[in-house]
Structures are given as structure tokens and as C-alpha cells.
Amino acid sequence: QVVSFNGEKKAIEMYNKFIKSAYRTVVEEGLVNGFGMGSVFCILFSSYGLAFWYGGKLIIDKGYTGGKIVTVLFAVLNGAT
Length: 81
Prior knowledge:
Elements: H1 8-62, H2 66-80
Helix pairs in contact: 1-2
């Protein structure tokens, strides 16, 4: 129908306008999702590091065993899920 009414240029212009708008929206959504997931994983891995550091501190200072530290770590991880 576009060809029969000589509306090709108008249809192409409308298509390009809408495709640019959709592209901008998808790029913004991707950035937000990326920062969100990055923040979640940063907190997750930082908490793992903190747990291992504190476990090492307990082993050195209070004589805990590695088995106790791992047991508590896995108990906390299972309880959090």
C-alpha cells in the first residue's frame, strides 16, 4: 500500500524515528540493568571476602578451626537463600 500511494519516504522517515527512539530506550535500560546487577554482585563478593577475612581472624586470634568457619559460612549462605 505504501508504494501505491507514493508514501515510501514518509514511511521510511517514521520507521527511522521510531527505531531511534526504541534504540535509545533499550540502551538506557541496558545501562540501568548493568549497574544494578554489578552492584548486587559487588555486594555479594565483598561479603564473601569479609566473611573469609573475619574467619581467618577468628582462626588466628581465637583458635577456631577451618572446619568451624566453613560450617558457619555455609550455614549463613544456606539460610540466606
